[in-house]
Recover the amino acids of this structure.
């Protein structure tokens, strides 16, 4: 560590050369970063770390610029890692999201979203996903969302990303306070992505539960009830949860729509459910389709059942509670083929 000669009295600032400018502080940070690199034996810091060193220099008081080279390099490298981790969390209105904004989303937990599977920069049902986002923003925030702007933000966030993955668009206002949710909202657009699972997924077994999501027609971020039932199902040896209402009519899965095949037609349960985009697309491409109430008592008479959402596509259901269903009925392959043949829209 270097030592600084103590100074005191009215001429203290003059002995130190006068007030320390930002440029001198930043230069000190740069010099220490370069010195640290040479002493420890690493290559010169890349450009973005140079910027971080400058910022660290600005943040530190001049009396702290006599740090060890090891500590200074540690600060630069740590700041770099934090910046990279934050960048990987997604973009909020076109810039990397901050931990503070994500904290607001996690703690206030008020907003809505849509998830889309991207295959080689194309998305099945993109227009309907954008329609959903605009519609739900009016319901949740009483605010109009610019559809084209949302599309542009998605395009920016996933530009040139190859292959298949899931992109999620979450609409929330990081400035809303938990105790003052009635304040005027300024919804913002968070775009994140995650890997896509391989298709087709193995048939799954589901456990029924009496449950109705709050505001079921909106894809909102309030998932506790659905995930609580999913967890219980998994703890009981099942793969997921299927919801039925108080009158024993089937509604939807935890994060997917359910469809049945009665031997002639695909039957989608009616009632208060989320109108999933994958379900809508399948209704458009499969001719023999109806929407009708499905009672729990009707399940044993069905030839097949399946789950549908953007992440899993069409996934066979082999059992609902102790009711066994044929997981390999030809209708499953037919629906998968029809869905996969739907052309994706380019961003």
């Amino acid at each position: 560590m270097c030592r600084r000669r103590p100074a005191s009295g009215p001429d203290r600032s003059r002995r130190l050369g006068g007030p320390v400018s930002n440029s001198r502080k930043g230069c000190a940070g740069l010099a220490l970063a370069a010195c640290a690199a040479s002493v420890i034996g690493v290559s010169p810091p890349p450009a973005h770390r140079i910027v971080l060193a400058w910022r660290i220099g600005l943040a530190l008081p001049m009396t702290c610029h006599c740090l060890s080279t090891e500590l200074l390099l540690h600060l630069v490298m740590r700041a770099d890692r934090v910046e990279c981790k934050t960048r990987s969390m997604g973009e909020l209105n076109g810039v990397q999201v901050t931990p503070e904004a994500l904290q607001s989303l996690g703690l206030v937990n008020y907003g809505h979203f849509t998830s889309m599977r991207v295959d080689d920069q194309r998305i099945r049902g993109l227009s309907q996903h954008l329609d959903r986002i605009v519609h739900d923003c009016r319901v949740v925030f009483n605010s109009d969302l610019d559809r084209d702007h949302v599309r542009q933000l998605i395009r920016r966030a996933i530009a040139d990303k190859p292959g298949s993955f899931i992109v999620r668009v979450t609409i929330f206002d990081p400035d809303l306070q938990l105790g003052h949710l009635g304040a005027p909202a300024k919804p913002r657009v968070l775009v994140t992505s995650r890997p896509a699972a391989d298709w087709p997924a193995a048939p799954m077994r589901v456990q029924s539960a009496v449950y109705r999501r709050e505001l079921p027609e909106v894809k909102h971020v309030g998932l506790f009830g659905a995930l609580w039932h999913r967890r219980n199902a998994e703890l009981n040896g099942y793969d997921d949860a299927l919801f039925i209402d108080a009158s024993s009519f089937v509604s939807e899965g935890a994060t997917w729509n359910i469809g049945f095949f009665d031997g002639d037609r695909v039957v989608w349960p009616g009632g208060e459910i989320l109108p999933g985009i994958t379900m809508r697309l399948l209704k458009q491409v499969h001719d023999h389709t109806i929407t009708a109430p499905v009672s729990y008592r009707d399940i044993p008479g069905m030839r097949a059942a399946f789950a549908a959402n953007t992440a899993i596509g069409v996934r066979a259901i082999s059992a609902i509670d102790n009711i066994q269903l044929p997981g390999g009925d030809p209708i499953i392959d037919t629906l998968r083929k029809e869905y996969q043949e739907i052309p994706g829209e380019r961003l």
